[in-house]
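To the team - (2S)-amino(hydroxy)ethanoic acid complex, inputs and output below.
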Amino acid sequence: MSAVEEIRVRGDRLWESLMALARIGATERGGVRRLALTDEDRQARELVVEWCRGAGLAVTVDRIGNIFARREGDRPDEPPVLGGSHIDTQPSGGRFDGNYGVLAMLEVVRTLDDYGIRTRAPVELAIWTNEEGTRFQPVMMGSGVFAGIFPLEQMLRRTDLDGRSVGAELKRIGFAGQAPCGEREIGAYFEAHIEQGPVLEDREKTIGVVTGVMGLRWFQVTVTGQDAHAGPTPMHLRRDAMLAAAHVVDGVNRIACGHGPHGRATVGYLQVKPNSINVVPGEVRFSIDVRHADDSALDAMESEMRERCAAIADATGTRIAIGDLSRFAPTRFDPGMIQGVRAAAERLRLSHMDIVSGAGHDAVHLAAIAPTGMIFVPCEGGISHNESENARPEDLEAGCNVLLHALLERAGKS
Ligand code: HGY
Ligand code: MN
Ligand code: MN
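Output:
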């Protein structure tokens, strides 16, 4: 019987499961398109549930479609130690964002079985509904309902651009579960994830000990001007919504650069009406994603953005409406969990460094209700939310070993 310190996951089996899952929603350019609650999401959910049941786990689904696969512990009444992430992706997403955290947890469970290890506390694999927030807002929806941050009924009524609701889509794909959302004690939560940025690769570190997550604010902006003929309408008599939008895009970029190094602002989505080559646009709708590691900086960025929009509206004779889409404050993880991840990396003799996550994760919501920690591994060129997203098998295996040993420390070996 191997001493616990010597047990290791099987990197080949982890890689095979990642590649098998990546085939669901695979794109021609090597990425994955698996939007939340689509048929691709259903197929992926069914596959992972089948693997979980094959590993002897008891699977439950809650009312927002979060999936929990439970491995019983010797003390079934003890709050479970959870590990997981999400399997919904961006429209042109990658094979590892979210999927790695779910399948690393499955690999941990399979490894515990390989070595015949029983834990004191129960262990649960978690798959959170709609982490990406692309098709339905807010971002990190399922974990937010589980943590009591988003009201269930309101989230079930949220609709996509085609008017389909979360509740109807959960029913349609067969994942409108019966279990209550949350309302139970969680012993701890771990999430393994690719970094989605270039720092670990640049510093040649295998493991990121995640100390916290940047705060995020999403806005929906609607600029209203006046449709007009592109020929007869003189420049100074136009109310050009596209011109105003262009000034806002440039303005938020300057605001973020003015709050470096952690300031971020992105306009990722833009719709033009009537979107015709010879019509001055009368309406432009777009998103703004603002982030920072510090809440007062986020406040400053938001007020500068609102002031700048008011000035642009005046200057262009347009109206600019700013709606709130989603937000969460900067998060610091539990010091004991951070130390647990760090100690596991040290025991495994893996190079590591502390790092703040620029990307949001379900761990942000779990941190509100349980001791939470994250483990990062590098991704190639720091590229993510991109079909070319890639990670090295040996790094994925290393991160999974850190998850195994940090989780065992928390769940206790019987
Ligand atoms: O937007 C984010 O940071 C995450 O990928 N949903
Ligand atoms: Mn993710
Ligand atoms: Mn993502």
